[in-house]
Design brief:
Layout (H helix, E strand, L loop, with lengths): L16 E3 L10 E6 L9 H14 L8 E5 L3 H13 L3 E6 L4 H9 L3 E5 L10 H14 L4 E3 L7 H17 L5 E5 L4 H13 L4 E7 L34 E5 L1 H15 L5 H17 L4 E6 L15
Parallel strand pairs: 2-10, 3-4, 3-6, 4-5, 7-8, 7-10, 8-9
Antiparallel strand pairs: 1-2
């Protein structure tokens, strides 16, 4: 597709929808994955970051010269850093040394400043580390000249994914029976399911959570290694009323699936993307042939090469 205005931001969205050919069993429903890794920074977060920035500009909350501040472990911070670079806003991302080095270096590459919250021995301790990160970004947000996007409570976050849902409905000619999605702020799940339920009320919304930190179902809350989700409860805008089912995925299941996606389907995704597919395959097996399950490859595996995700 040629974008006539030659604007990088116009390339956000309209990502491919791909059918998994090898992972589903012969009698399973088909599983379609939305390749959000094709967005400019390799993540679905490009959608929500752009939506929140443009909403703040439109409403006059964000003015030229103001510094955008947000807390992020990686993908949202990267997307914001890229968009702020294009739009001319200085940007500070509150993060931690617990997150993958690739993610932090990418944020810096776009010119954003990293405000690092030290972790315990380089590990993300839940929820204490994220409490510190959120306290710090709220402090920064109160300083003159700063604008705190507050993705966890920003209505423009879930609204960004209304468009993704409409893309999926267009790509499938409306043939969607279930949608599975890991939830951090819950923006992607909520924004997508709002449109799906309006299209057909019996589309099954499956919220996916780490088995080690059951932040949606209210189960045990321990340590897990599925980046970007289960860092605390979902945001205040998370639509629990759109959750029909909850699937818990272990670190081991997500790691194995990330490797299988790369080696069997040629799809290079991260940990939460793999967890989405684990849940989608479970639902596909239950629904059976003739039905369609959709999910999201929400980021790229390139962000995880320094860790153990793809270690043989």
């Amino acid at each position: 597709m040629i974008h006539k205005d030659f604007n990088l931001l116009s390339t956000i969205g309209n990502t491919p929808l791909i059918e998994l050919r090898k992972l589903p069993a012969p009698g399973d429903a088909r599983v379609l994955v939305k390749l959000e890794s094709k967005n400019p920074t390799g993540s679905s977060k490009d959608r929500s970051a752009l939506s929140m920035i443009e909403d703040a500009e439109r409403t006059g909350k964000l003015k030229p010269g103001q510094r955008v501040v947000e807390a992020s472990g990686g993908s949202t911070g990267t997307a914001l850093a890229m968009i702020c670079a294009l739009k001319g806003y200085p940007c500070t991302i509150v993060t931690s040394d617990a997150f993958a080095d690739e993610k932090l270096k990418t944020i810096q590459a776009f010119g954003a400043f990293l405000d690092i919250i030290p972790s315990v021995h380089g590990k993300a301790t839940y929820p204490e580390l994220f409490d510190l990160m959120h306290a710090r970004v709220e402090e920064l947000g109160r300083l003159p000249g700063n604008y705190y996007l507050h993705q966890m409570a920003n209505p423009a976050n879930p609204r960004a994914y209304n468009a993704m849902a409409r893309e999926i409905l267009d790509q499938t000619e409306g043939q969607v029976d279930a949608f599975t999605m890991t939830c951090g702020s819950g923006g992607c799940f909520s924004g997508t399911m709002e449109v799906f339920k309006d299209h057909r009320s019996d589309i099954i919304g499956v919220a996916v959570e780490p088995a080690g930190y059951r932040h949606i179902s209210g189960g045990p809350k321990g340590v897990h290694h599925i980046d970007g989700v289960g860092d605390g409860p979902p945001g205040v805008l998370f639509r629990y009323d759109l959750v029909d089912e909850i699937e818990a995925v272990t670190d081991q299941e997500a790691y194995r699936m990330a490797r299988r996606l790369a080696r069997e389907e040629g799809i290079f995704g991260g940990k939460s993307a793999a967890a989405n597919v684990v849940a989608a395959l479970r639902i596909a097996k239950r629904l059976g042939k003739g039905r369609t399950v959709t999910t999201v490859i929400c980021d790229t595996g390139y962000k995880y090469l320094s860790g153990d995700l793809f270690t043989i």
